[in-house]
Amino acid sequence: MLYYLLTSLTDEFSPFNVFRYQTTRTGSAVLTALLFVFLFGPRIISLLKLKQGRGQPIRSDGPQRHIVEKQGTPTMGGLMILSGIFVATVLWADLRNLYVWAVLFVTMGFGAIGFYDDFLKVTKSSTKGFSGRVRLLAEVAVAAIAVAAFMWIGGKPLSMSLALPFFKGALIYFGVFFIFVGVFVVVGAGNAVNMTDGLDGLAIVPVMIAAASFGLISYLVGNFNFSDYLQLHFVRGTGELAIISGAIVGAGLGFLWFNAPPAMIFMGDTGSLSLGGALGAIAVAVKHEIVLAIIGGLFVLETASVIIQVVSFKLTGKRVFAMAPLHHHFEQKGWKEPTIVIRFWIIAFVLALLGLSTLKLR
User: Fold this and answer.
1) 24 contacts 37 by C-beta, under 8 angstroms
2) pLDDT at position 53, please?
3) Of 8, 23, 224, 251, which is most buried with the most CB atoms under 10 A?
4) How far apart are CA 350 and CA 166, in angstroms?
């Protein structure tokens, strides 16, 4: 909205012309989302404390110190993040761009699913939300609508293909069956971030790192000159997704202020599911699905640890890790929470650099 207002006034005040640039609006989205969460965060936390009473239920089969240290902390902090993202995006993005609405649809849709799950956990004082099968079906439905939109908006055959990093122009064409690939990426990303969210500040910083990386990728892929120079697949219109990526970074920074150890609030499934879904949707839109697995490699590792643990126990009766997901394994090994969190942040940063290197290695 501010984008339209300010650019319409360029004849009267020429400096407003700077807001035509996606880079300026991305920076504005970062600051807007950050200030929104920072200013309204305390009120939201107070309201959630009042409504939730005992706060987020703590798993009895998890690390025992969590029962003592984290009991009573309110959840659903993802509402703060989603509010910041939505306000910043609506103010600074080009709302005529269908990619923007498709990614917002996934973000808010997954946020609603996560909110309902958190609501049931809090009201029932249980760590179990609603049926996993129903939840998965809801996620698939939301993701399928968005991926179908990407396939319709984008140019053919690119929008129906999986792009391979490191190989110039390499595509695997799936046709209409690409919808299954896209849904897998979006749903997988949402649940991978959800599994990573287990310690104070652990998930939000890697999400911000990934969002910043995909903000850059969106800007480059959506610009014909840059994509041509870097030999990337040009996807017209995806440059606007840099604004959403910036909003995620800004809202994440604001949330981290309250989520830093010891956390005043947890993002809950409301936040983790929606943020992961947003990253997955952006990756599909800009045709960097495989690169997401590199940049978001920390989320992949956390998910893989759960899969390995379950498979190993069912087949052999033995556990590979002391506890899954992976961050709980290191807790059980005696690592302090800040040590785990900061080291995982470092891993996320290094993986993001590796993922971004694929832009030039062709």
Assistant:
1) no
2) 65
3) 251
4) 18
> CA-CA distance, 345 to 359, in Å (whole number)?
22
Residue entry with tokens 């150890």: 261
- Lowest pLDDT segment from 73-82, 203-212, 218-227: 73-82
Above 70 in pLDDT, residue 62?
no
Long-range contacts of 100-105 (CB under 8 A, 24+ apart): 100/240, 100/241, 100/243, 100/244, 102/146, 102/149, 102/150, 102/153, 102/281, 102/285, 103/146, 103/241, 103/244, 103/278, 103/281, 103/282, 103/285, 104/244, 105/142, 105/145, 105/146, 105/149
Among the listed residues 30, 12, 10, the one whose alpha carbon sits nearest the alpha carbon of residue 20: 10
User: How confident is the model at residue 5, as a pLDDT?
Assistant: 74
- Which residue, among 195, 138, 148, has the nearest Cα to 329 in the 3D structure? 195
CA dihedral for 187, 255, 295, 92, sign (positive or negative) = positive
Q: Give residue for tokens 């200013």.
A: 39
Alpha helix locations (H) across 18-77? 22-52, 64-69
Q: What is the pTM of this model?
A: 0.93
pLDDT (0 to 100) of residue 305:
94
